[in-house]
Amino acid sequence: MKFDRLRLNGFKSFVDPTDLVIREGLTGVVGPNGCGKSNLLEALRWVMGENRPTAMRGEGMEDVIFAGTSRRGARAHAEVTLTIDNRERLAPASVNDADGIDIVRRITRDAGSAYRINGKDARARDVQMLFADASTGAHSPALVRQGQISELINARPKSRRRILEEAAGISGLYARRHEAELKLNSAEANLSRVDDTLDQLA
Ligand code: ATP
């Protein structure tokens, strides 16, 4: 899955619409302290479905919306769009019929987040599964934030295994297994309710 472009609008310090073209190969972001390097990486994680405010260095998810400065007022919403180049048809089957895939996440104060995949409303789970199936996502080891290398060196074996599983592309299978277990549990609960009803009728 090749990321083509990241578009930010009202996300943290990126108050004006900003386009970042992502070229082939490894991408490094450089710039003076406080210019927004980490905000860019956070925008990428956020549009892929990150749901922990702490991972965005905030207390609540609305903290990602431009908070205003002495010269500019706060914004009411933030939006990030990630465009994926799908000309090689590497995307998961559910979205594999287009050359490009636009994933949009928008957050509005007091109204929470909404997602769209190629213009159609989607759930956070749909977006997370899309990336998990492609062995990437908000927790992908391909996105290296500041301090992560030393964390990795000092990590416990269990955390290191998670990183290896992500890299091996099996984390999507864990998510699907979890989903299947939830469905199974709910089917079992329904069955036992049917049994109770049948007992009462007998
Ligand atoms: P460093 O090299 O010091 O780690 P950086 O380039 O990674 O810095 P970021 O941490 O991405 O910089 O950006 C920090 C800037 O983003 C700060 O100026 C901070 O005020 C601004 N910022 C963060 N959240 C918001 C927000 N919700 N609204 C407006 N500005 C914000």
Task: Please describe what this structure looks like.
With 202 residues, the chain is of the alpha+beta class. The chain has 2 domains: 2-138, P-loop containing nucleotide triphosphate hydrolases (Rossmann fold, 3-Layer(aba) Sandwich), CATH 3.40.50.300; 176-202. The protein is built from 5 helices and 6 strands; from the N terminus they run E-E-H-E-E-E-E-H-H-H-H. It has helices spanning 37-47, 124-133, 148-154, 157-168, 171-201; strands spanning 2-9, 18-21, 77-85, 100-108, 112-117, 120-122. A hairpin with a 2-residue loop joins strand 5 (112-117) and strand 6. The longest helix has 31 residues, at 171-201. The protein starts with a strand and ends with a helix. The mean pLDDT is 88. The site of adenosine-5'-triphosphate (ATP) has 15 residues, from helix 1.
Question: Which structural traits does this protein have?
Answer:
Rossmann fold; single chain; six-stranded antiparallel β-sheet; globular; about 200 residues; binds adenosine-5'-triphosphate; alpha+beta
